[in-house]
Amino acid sequence: MSTSVASVPLPSSSPAGDLHDRPDAELDLLPYGVICLDPEGTIVRYNRVEARFARLDRALVLGKPFFGVVAPCTATPEFEGRFRALVGDPNGPSKVTFPYVFNFRFGAQEVDVEIRRSRSPRHFYVCVGRRKFRANAVRSAPGAERPGIALAELAPEERRLGIVRDQVERRNVVVDAPFFEALQTALREPARAEEIGLAWGRRVAIDLETEAAESFDGALRELPIVTVLELVTRYVRTHGWGHLVVELDHAPAGLIGFHLERSILAEAAGASAAPRCGIVAGFLRAVLSHLAQRAMTVREIRCSAAGHEGCVFAATGGARTEELDRAAAQAGDLRSIAQALSRKE
Hints:
alpha+beta, 11 strands
């Protein structure tokens, strides 16, 4: 693999107090790893990005010693030594930044680390930005002889407890049609469904960033748009939501189309006069907003639950939401909506 720009960069400026004041839900949306340690090095907080890149379950690492158990490759003067020095000198610098290599059994990650003081004397924040990935651990790096712990070591009895994980240690649950039927009964309000999809899509975007970094050694925004869209459509397909196809014919008008065949949500809803795939619309909105780094709007303009052949979604910039809604109310296909949006320019 060739060197790339930072795949998951650290922020240029973000006071530790800001991190300490943020709830876990906000830390989960940050594009870099965050680990909060107490002065003894026990893990107090652990955000989603860090859990995803380390292939660990947050619930299983909280309360565990970071240096001695969860990440033994960091029990070195270069890492733990800097942490102990910062903790031991309350009048010292507010933060320390250095490069490091995290060694895991599944490979190595070249990272930038920033350890920051918090406004709370009992909390120190370790921020981790990934720069590069290697299929094999870098044995010459500090701590290489002690790779990070595997999830199976933290929870050896999981299978007996009915817990299933995929190849990258994410917990999976098989959900059948009756569940979706019940979900559709509960989500009669489109806004509620989209809100769920939006939260889901924001978290999936982190998984997609991880896949891009590990497979292509870069961030999603650095990859060709065709590659990125393939990652998105493959995620939808392999997770059983249906077959998603992207239409870029109307991109010059600022419109992206998505066709979803055999939507599980539409099938579970039965006959409906209104579109019923708001969760997918919210999901697409979150992922597209992440990629564009600006607000996007997605509307389901056709739904198989309403008798159409498939479900169709129209996406455009958030600043054009009202224009999209007006055009969608007057036209039921992407071409007509694109023409209406073009006339507004």
